[in-house]
Design goal:
It is a single chain. By secondary structure, the protein is mainly β. 10% of the residues lie in helices and 55% in strands. It has 2 helices and 7 strands, in the order αβαββββββ. It has helices at 9-13, 32-42, and strands spanning 19-26, 48-63, 75-90, 96-102, 108-130, 133-139, 146-152. The strands form 2 sheets. Strands 1, 2, 3, 4 and 5 form a 5-stranded antiparallel β-sheet that branches. Strands 6-7 form a two-stranded antiparallel ribbon. The longest helix has 11 residues, at 32-42. The radius of gyration is 17 Å and the shape is globular. The two termini are 20 Å apart. Pfam families: PCC (PF03479).
């Protein structure tokens, strides 16, 4: 990123990566994050991300945004049948996924996926991979968190 949060001109002005797509269906009881990270590792994907995911879960562990000083990074356990209305993120290293889940009344909860996201009936997932890039996660001194680093493959 350039100063002010503007993407590096090189990544903004020209396409620099072809895209490969991988589709799968996860079955009841499988843990989504674990399955996706295993698939990425087994297939040696270097710049993977979730293109699409629809399905349902019976549980999920989500980290919420900082609510206050007393409850930074609050973690909640979502239990019961929920539809996956969104699953997005990168799958480099340990991944960085966010999910939005809807209950039987249409109420939505969302956050950073920590794990325990178990499939209820199905999870239909399409993973994209930027073939000419490499994603890693490295500690960012400014944020203190593992943040995405994008590099062109040589």
């Amino acid at each position: 990123m350039a100063e002010g949060g503007i993407p590096n001109k090189r990544f903004r002005d020209k396409p620099h990566s072809s895209l490969s797509c991988f589709a799968m269906r996860l079955k009841p009881g499988q843990e989504i994050r674990e399955c996706l990270l295993s698939y990425v590792k087994e297939n040696n994907l270097k710049a993977p991300f979730v293109l699409s995911c629809v399905g349902s879960v019976t549980s999920a562990t989500l980290r919420l945004a900082n609510v206050s000083k007393d409850t930074p990074n609050e973690i909640i356990e979502v239990e019961g049948r929920h539809e996956i209305v969104s699953l997005v993120g990168t799958l480099a290293d340990e991944g960085h996924l966010h999910a939005a889940l809807s209950d039987k009344d249409g109420h939505v909860v969302g956050g950073h996926v920590m794990g325990n996201m178990k499939v209820f009936t199905t999870a239909e997932v399409v993973i994209g991979n930027c073939d000419m890039l490499s994603f890693t996660r490295e500690i960012d001194e400014e944020t203190g968190f593992d943040e995405l680093v994008v590099k062109e493959k040589v």
